[in-house]
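Title: [Solved] Alcohol dehydrogenase [NADP(+)] A 3D structure

Original question kept below for reference.
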Amino acid sequence: MYEGIKKAKSGDVITDRSKEMERWVEHYSELFTTENTVSEEAINNISALPALDELDTESTIAELEKTINSLIDVMASRNKYATFSNGIKVPLLGLGTWKSKPGEVKNAIKTAIDAGYRHFDGAFSYENEKEVGNAYHEKITDGTVKREDLFITTKLWATYHRPERVEYGLRLSLKALQLDYVDLYLIHTPMGIQYKGDDVLFPNGENGEFLADDICPTETWKAMEKLVEKGLTKSIGVSNFTIRQMEDILKIAKVPIATNQVENHPCLDQKEMTDFCKSKNILITSYSPFGSPDRPWASDKDPNLLEDPVVKEIAGGKGCTPGQLLIAYHLCQGFLCIPKSVTPSRIQQNFQLEKPRPLSLLDVRRRQIYGLPRTISR
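Solution (posted by the thread starter after getting help):
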C-alpha cells in the first residue's frame, strides 16, 4: 500500500486521495477516489514529491506542476477502476449496448475493444446478445484480448424473476454470449412480469392488460446469490431499484449488492440515491449519461445535454467534446459510466479521457453544470 511522501515502487496501490495532493491542490482532490495500481511507466513519470516548505523557487514550482500533471495522468488514465464491496475491480468507463441494433452492435464492440474498452454492458431484453457474443468470441479467438481481460455485464429480464427461472434466464444469456460466466449480473427491473415464453418480453392478457407477476425482489435476490455460488457470475446487483427496494434486499442479503444501475446525468440528478448507495458501499452505474436524447418516449421539450449551451461552453474551454465532458462529470464522482454508441469515431472519442482529465468536480460545480434545469421526468 502506498502511504505517500516516499517514491512509489512498482505494484504499490494508491488508494483514496494522494496525501501530497491533499496538502497542495484541493482543486484536484476529488479526482482521487478510486484505487489504482502503480505501473513501471507511472514510476518513470512521477518523482518523490517535495514537502511544501521546499517549494521556494520557480523551477521547483514548475517541477511540481509537471509532477501533478503526471499524477493526474495516472489517476485519470484509461485503465481507471472502481472496486465493488466484494473486492472485485471494474473499469469505470464501459460501452453500453441498449438500442444498439443487430448489424451494428458487433462492429461497435469490436471497435471498442480495439480502442481499449474492457467493460461492456448488455441485457437479455436488448435482443442483441447473440451478435454481442459473436464480437466477444472473435476478439478472444484472434488473441486481441483474453476472457479475463473483459468485464461483461448482462441482466435478468423481468419474466425470469421467479426463483426457479433465475438460473435459466442467465443460462440463456450465457449461451447467446458464448460465455461460461459473466462478471456482473443485474436484476434489470424490480417488477416481475409473467412468463409466456422466451421470445415474449412484455406479455399481455386477453384484453390487452399488462401481466405483472406477484413476486418479491427479495425472493429473486436469493436465487441470484446461488448464481454466485455456482460460478455463473462473479458479482450481482440491481437496476432501476428505489432506495426502499434496496433496503428490503439488504435486510436478507448474504451476497452484497455490487451496484445499482440507474439513469443518471445532470438533468436527472440522483443525489438521494447516490448518497444512499455510498453509505451502503454500493456503486452507482450511470446509464444514459448523455440524457438519452434518442429514447423512444422523448419529448421535444426535454433538454438535450449534448447541445446544451452550458455544456458546450465548458467543453470548448476544456478542449474536449460535450460527450467527453459529460463522461468526466460521472467519473469525477466515482460513478461507473456506460455511454452507448455504434459510431466508431464516437466510441473512440468517448474513450479519450486525456482531454477532459484535468476537470475536477469543483470545476464542474463552478461552471454550473449542476445548475442545468432538472426538467426531464421519468
